[in-house]
Fold Inhibitor I9 domain-containing protein.
Amino acid sequence: MPTMYSITLKQGASADEIDKAKESAKAQGGTVKHEFTLIKGFTVEFPNETVHTLKTDDHIHVEQDGAARTQ
């Protein structure tokens, strides 16, 4: 089963940096599923057996997407 990640960029990130992050995700086997409009970011789905290097970029924050819970 594929794994979904939320990718967000720092507030000052340019449109070019966002495009580079999306292209990097796609090059690593990911599929962009949703692009955010209020914040600079997107969700990407990767096959489980993929290795990711997006976390090595200082301008990108990566976290596994999941259900929001209050407790």
About this structure: The CA atoms of residues 21 and 57 lie 9 Å apart. The two ends are 26 Å apart (CA to CA). Strands lie at 3-9, 31-35, 41-46, 60-64.
